[in-house]
Amino acid sequence: MANARDALVEAAARFSFSPTARLDAELLLAHALGIERNALLLDLTRAVPDSFGPLVERRAAQEPVAYITGTRGFWTLDLKVGPGALVPRADSETLIAAALAHFGGTPPAMVLDLGTGPGTLLLALLDEWRSARGIGVDYSAEALGYALANARLCGMADRARFVRGDWAGALTGAFDCIVSNPPYIGTAEPLSPEVKDYEPAAALFAGPDGLDDYRRLAPMLRRRLAPGGAALVEIGYEQAAAVTPLLEEQGFRVVLHRDLGGRPRVLLAH
Ligand SMILES: C[S@@+](CC[C@H](N)C(=O)[O-])C[C@H]1O[C@@H](n2cnc3c(N)ncnc32)[C@H](O)[C@@H]1O
């Protein structure tokens, strides 16, 4: 029977399409063994279970690792994810860092996450702001199923509520912090099979120029933001020049935040 060391080399070679081929293999083998990746790396002589083979086949077909393992780490949390919900992206942690920096030692009382998916932004913020409560909105029932499960798993079900709806259309009241990572990919943009063939199109595409959802969201942010509050939206790295005026037209002052790669990633409107 192959040992872990050899099996990882073989699996990573099958994942040459992935920039994180070796990491993918380690995560899948740790999942098959039911242990943490760190524990796997401490002993690479261990035997490989038969259940690893089918996982390798799924990844070789470019299924996202997070859909295979059913979880994805985001900020301080391990979130349950699966088909029907976008896999949280590391780039979105820029928005969390920007929100924490903006509010500093005075956390907002009410947070609204528009397009919450598996609860990503809302739950990460509520984990930091223990006195805050929040609402996550999505129009995907599947995504909301994961969001609710994640709120329970992370011990935040008493502070996080989820609502199915078309952005903020059905909401009333004011929120001190509104966050959103809406779909922002243009319909003709080329995408890898990993994204295009597995992740929900409704979480990705926003009209020919990728801006349709920002156009709808901008006036809703104005209406739902409490005085003195801040709205933060994630953007594609080439969209700052197009999205900033949409927010400024609503009377907002806009501050740009960059991701760890130095690319424009978040607009903070206040
Ligand atoms: C790019 S995904 C982001 C998901 C999550 N916020 C994250 O960062 O992992 C966009 C989300 O917006 C949701 N969405 C798209 N159009 C929507 C609409 N009109 N109203 C509410 N949610 C919408 C999608 O279902 C999807 O979950």
Q: Give the class-level CATH name of the largest domain.
A: Alpha Beta
Strand order of the largest sheet: 5-4-3-6-7-9-8
Q: What ions, cofactors and ligands are bound?
A: S-adenosylmethionine
Fraction of helical residues: 25-40%
**Percentage beta strand:** 15-25%
- CA-CA gap between termini: 60 Å
Work out the oligomeric state of the chains in this entry.
single chain
CATH superfamily of the largest domain: Vaccinia Virus protein VP39
The coarse silhouette is globular
**How is the biggest beta sheet arranged?**
7 strands, mixed
Please tell me the overall pLDDT.
Answer: 96
Would you give an account of this structure?
It is built from eleven helices and nine strands. 38% of the residues lie in helices and 19% in strands. It folds into two domains: 4-61, Helicase, Ruva Protein, domain 3, CATH 1.10.8; 85-269, Rossmann fold, CATH 3.40.50. The strands form two sheets. A seven-stranded mixed beta sheet has the order 5-4-3-6-7-9-8, with helices on both faces. It is of the alpha/beta class and 270 residues long. Helix 2 packs antiparallel against helix 4. The longest helix has 13 residues, at 21-33. The structure holds S-adenosylmethionine.
Task: Give a nutshell description of this structure.
It is built from eleven helices and nine strands. By secondary structure, it is of the alpha/beta class.
